[in-house]
Amino acid sequence: MTSTSHAPASGAGTAPPDHLGHVVLIAAAAAMGGFLFGYDSSVINGAVEAIRDRYDVGSAVLAQVIAVALIGCAIGAATAGRIADRIGRIRCMQIAAVLFTVSAVGSALPFALWDLAMWRVIGGFAIGMASVIGPAYIAEVSPPAYRGRLGSFQQAAIVIGIAVSQLVNWGLLNAAGGDQRGELMGLEAWQTMLGVMVVPAVLYGLLSFAIPESPRFLISVGKRERAKRILEEVEGRDVDFDARVTEIEHAMHSEEKSSFKDLLGGSFFFKPIVWIGIGLSVFQQFVGINVAFYYSSTLWQSVGVNPAESFLYSFTTSIINIIGTVIAMIFVDRVGRKPLALIGSVGMVIGLGLEAWAFSFALVDGKLPATQGWVALIAAHVFVLFFALSWGVVVWVFLGEMFPNRIRAAALGVAASAQWIANWAITASFPSLADWNLSGTYVIYTVFAALSIPFVLRYVKETKGKALEEMG
Which of 93, 209, 358, 363 has a 20 to 30 A CA-CA distance from 77? Predict the structure, then answer.
């Protein structure tokens, strides 16, 4: 990413409103990858029970089909940076858009369970690419004065994508008479749900043709004049662009390429700071947040809520997720990362603990007792709210800031990989754990939320207001 420490004062914060609007449109177009990230991650929620019924599979096999996309995510995230450095950020977005489209069509028209899993892996690869290339591109085209706010577009797009997928699923379910396997547009409803993602995927691809290539990439391949024209588009006209290009070149040449071996050290294989990053990633997933987005419809149906209402509750949870994310974006620089993480952990313990209590009661006529049902519903929303206003945003901020410059890229890669692996572990284990004991499953998530409090207090240092060069 382009160095900002020596950016010229002129042009950085004096861009006229119409010019800033152009940059906002560029960032929003790039953030469509984040929207697809959220949409594709969550759309499967509407198909879980229908897939179980159509292919007559048990919880363990079903979980692997749902979770296998995360393998693709990990591979896509690991390779996207190198692909983007070789062929450019825009080409990388276009490849992701094609993969999203292919995955949507294939998932809507599977002829067996194995090929549905294959299309899920392809979609996961696209998610992994989008999770890396979107934030990197936005950072590289944004004027320094607006970089933080424009960078938040990616996270906002992800949570909006989750909410829209739940709303679309709910609408399609109602159109199919409340039956996930009911006929809709010549397919079963669940197939239509997965296929609708073609629309935002194609839009993402079209938008990628309308935005400029990253100036940093152009400079890296010797296209200085084109880079200068794009810098003028995004940073205004009052900048010495020859000096700006020289500055970017200097920053690129002075950067050290961190490698895996740079992370080794200490008494437990990795340096302690790397383990702290891994710990943040693992705790973020082990509280069970993705159960709320992959399985919430199944969860509510398992305690007697009818399918249409279960889809509506999934949508309202997604709205709460958006509200929490906005709260985090407002307060992360005011309150600080560490206090927000601690507040979130306490709130998650309360929400998860209440869910565990509610699910411990026996079903009456296939439903939770009325009181416990309402407690479970409210507690689920409390959990998602406190996660979103804290760990959902703060962990990514920490991972971007906490590592020393020399190992930042490699350490962030290891921590992000740990996050995908932890995500897979939770996603793959939930159906079997829920069959074993739903209340006990939520007790496990509550314990991890509680353990995150002493972990943050003891090991995590505040990074608010510190220059990246101060991290050591």
Answer: 209
Q: Enumerate residues 6+ apart whose C-beta is below 8 A from 468.
A: 401, 405, 408
Q: Which helix (H) or strand (E) holds 270?
A: strand 270-270
Whole-model pTM? 0.79
- In this structure, the strands spanning 187-188 and 264-268 are unpaired
120-124, 289-293, 367-371, range with greatest mean pLDDT: 120-124
| Two structure tokens written together for 8 | 């010229």
Average pLDDT of the chain, as a whole number:
84
Helix (H, G, I), strand (E, B) or coil at 264: strand
Give the residues across from 364 on adjacent strands. 367
Q: Is the pLDDT of residue 470 over 60?
A: no
Helix (H) or strand (E) holding 35: helix 32-43
Report which secondary-structure segment, H or E, holds 183: strand 183-184
Q: What tokens were used for 347?
A: 């709130």
Half-sphere exposure (Cβ direction) of 142: Cα atoms closer than 13 Å? 25
Cα within 13 Å of Cα(60), Cβ side: 1
Q: In CATH, what class is 1-255?
A: mainly alpha
Contacts from 269-273 at CB under 8 Å and sequence distance 24+?
A: 270/414, 271/407, 273/402, 273/403, 273/404, 273/411
What pLDDT, in 10s, does the model give residues 251-285?
A: 666 655 656 666 666 656 778 888 999 999 999 99
Do 1-255 and 257-472 show the same overall fold? yes
The ranges assigned to domains in the chain are 1-255, 257-472
Question: What's the one-letter identity of residue 454?
Answer: P
SS3 annotation, 286-311: HCCHHHHHHCHHHHHHHCCCCHHHHH
Dihedral sign for Cα atoms in the order 112, 115, 116, 117:
positive
What CATH architecture is 257-472? Up-down Bundle (1.20)
Q: Which two tokens stand for residue 458?
A: 């003891």
Give CA–CA dist 114/106, Å, rounded: 12
Q: Residue 80: enclosing H or E segment and its boundaries?
A: helix 69-87
pLDDT at 467 (0 to 100): 52
Which pair of structure tokens corresponds to residue 257? 């390429």
Residue 377 near residue 366, CB atoms below 8 Å: no
- Give the residue among 288, 275, 276, 225 at the shortest CA–CA distance from 456: 276
Tokens 């296209």 correspond to 223
CA dihedral 54, 127, 172, 187 (to 10 degrees): -40
pLDDT value at 114 more than 80: yes
Name the residue with higher pLDDT: 258 or 249: 249
Predicted confidence at residue 320, as pLDDT, reads 94
Burial of residue 400, with CB atoms counted within 10 A of its CB: 0-12 exposed, 13-18 middle, 19 or more buried = middle
